[in-house]
């Protein structure tokens, strides 16, 4: 019989330092998932190199709590604080970070990179730590039957595909194409069909039916007045593409994506092998409310972004979704929460909103160890009426 144990290392009021999941499979092999909460490097001066050095140090320590190293990392999210409204300022920040990204990881950790990556400029407000230039979230997997390659985790009996985020950027006749023009529908369709569908078809994997999760970023700083027009357009294209096989997921505006000429960057998660995909059958804000990956003895549930104006109520809704998928609830089975606070131009109001959000969040987890968490300010979340939101993952054993 399979067994799942979740260890929440060094828990605080709203998140633990590292969430570790120990899965004993039915054949007695062991898989360990190690997921540090989002980290910054603000113990060092506010320049890109220093803070990246500090972030790596902090994440290494968090990985070590679960017995993992950077070579076990398969997923990386880079959340840049938006340095300014000007495109060129963002380009400089991006290039400065990318110039040292992989080389510094290798130099400090001694490990080669096996991870995907999805980056974005989030919002000028940044993160709970106001002097952070960026926050980074990573996920690691290790075990006797676990093999990592870029964007793929092979567990032996099943494969978890988590490619890097993609925009329209591609090579054509020896030239780099960064935009397809103003047609947003065409942009989204190109990414889904040419950047993802074709590459997965070559592996015998169907993007439309085997996608369990989809995160979609929509850049808006070039035209803030078009924020929700863009989000609704992209949401509809994604819905039309997947039809009855709608994955769980979330869509939200950000300042910019790494391809500064592009508007949209989605990132799917797909599975194949000895697994069953179960969808909730209920669509909210364009996505299945939850999707479950069920394999012999173990179920993993991805809960779509839930938005509103109260973190306690949102977490309760997530708890209900986990129970609907067969679990025991968020406190028992939750591994990681991604938190989103909608920020505006007034920094003092943004900070007050974060303070209230965290108070509600800690109230929900009062007396128990919370899951891992990353929090970020963004221009909006899922729907124009929401001022905050949360998405979540849970894992539990099944008979």
Structural summary, described in words:
By secondary structure, this protein is an alpha+beta fold. It has helices at residues 48-64, 87-109, 184-201, 207-210, 227-242, 311-324, 330-333, 347-364, and strands at 3-11, 16-24, 30-36, 73-80, 118-121, 134-143, 147-149, 152-154, 158-161, 170-172, 175-177, 211-219, 248-254, 264-273, 276-279, 283-284, 287-288, 290-295, 298-308, 334-342, 372-378, 388-397. It folds into 3 domains: 27-157, 60s Ribosomal Protein L30, Chain: A, CATH 3.30.1330; 166-287, RutC-like (60s Ribosomal Protein L30, Chain: A), CATH 3.30.1330.40; 296-399, 60s Ribosomal Protein L30, Chain: A, CATH 3.30.1330. Helix content is 29%, strand content 35%. It has a 6-stranded mixed β-sheet, with helices on one face. It has a 6-stranded mixed β-sheet with strand order 7-8-9-14-12-13. A 6-stranded mixed β-sheet has the order 15-18-19-22-20-21. Helix 1 (48-64) packs across helix 2 and helix 6 crosses helix 8.
Features:
60s Ribosomal Protein L30, Chain: A; 399 residues; globular; 6-stranded mixed β-sheet; 3 domains; 35% strand; alpha+beta; 8 helices
Please summarize what this structure is.
The protein has about 400 residues and is α+β, with helices and mostly antiparallel strands. It has helices at about 50-65, 85-110, 185-200, 205-210, 225-240, 310-325, 330-335, 345-365, and strands spanning about 5-10, 15-25, 30-35, 75-80, 120, 135-145, 145-150, 150-155, 160, 170, 175, 210-220, 250-255, 265-275, 275-280, 285, 285-290, 290-295, 300-310, 335-340, 370-380, 390-395.
């Amino acid at each position: 019989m399979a067994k799942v144990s979740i260890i929440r290392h060094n828990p605080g009021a709203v998140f633990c330092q590292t969430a570790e999941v120990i899965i004993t499979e039915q054949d007695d092999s062991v898989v360990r998932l190690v997921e540090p909460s989002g980290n910054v490097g603000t113990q060092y001066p506010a320049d890109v190199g220093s803070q990246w050095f500090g972030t790596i140090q902090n994440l290494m320590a968090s990985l070590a709590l679960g017995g993992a190293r950077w070579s076990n990392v398969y997923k990386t999210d880079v959340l840049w604080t938006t340095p300014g409204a000007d495109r060129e300022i963002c380009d400089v920040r991006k290039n400065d970070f990318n110039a040292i990204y992989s080389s510094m990881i290798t130099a400090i950790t001694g490990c080669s990179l096996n991870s995907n990556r999805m980056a974005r400029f989030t919002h000028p407000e940044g993160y709970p730590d106001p002097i952070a230039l960026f926050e980074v979230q990573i996920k690691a997997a290790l075990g006797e039957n676990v093999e990592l390659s870029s964007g793929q985790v092979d567990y032996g009996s099943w494969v978890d595909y988590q490619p890097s985020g993609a925009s329209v950027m591609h090579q054509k006749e020896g030239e780099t194409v960064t935009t397809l023009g103003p047609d947003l529908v065409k942009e989204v369709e190109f990414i889904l069909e040419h950047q993802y569908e074709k590459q997965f078809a070559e592996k015998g994997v169907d993007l439309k039916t085997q996608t369990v999760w989809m995160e979609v970023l929509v850049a808006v700083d070039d035209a803030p007045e078009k924020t929700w027009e863009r989000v609704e357009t992209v949401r509809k294209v994604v819905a039309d593409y997947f039809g009855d096989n709608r994955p769980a997921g979330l869509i939200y505006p950000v300042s910019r994506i790494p391809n500064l000429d592009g508007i949209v960057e989605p990132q799917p998660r797909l599975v194949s092998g000895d697994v069953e995909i179960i969808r909730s059958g209920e669509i909210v804000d364009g996505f299945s409310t939850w999707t479950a990956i069920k394999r012999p003895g173990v179920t993993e549930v991805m809960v779509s972004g839930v938005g509103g104006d109260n973190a306690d109520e949102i977490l309760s809704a997530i708890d209900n979704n986990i129970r609907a998928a067969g679990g025991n609830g968020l406190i028992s089975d939750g591994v990681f929460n991604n938190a989103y606070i909608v920020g505006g131009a007034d920094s003092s109001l943004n900070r007050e909103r974060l303070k209230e959000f965290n108070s509600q969040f800690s109230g929900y987890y009062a007396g128990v160890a919370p899951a891992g968490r990353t929090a970020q300010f963004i221009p909006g979340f899922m729907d124009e009426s929401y001022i905050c939101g949360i998405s979540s993952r849970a894992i539990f054993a099944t008979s």
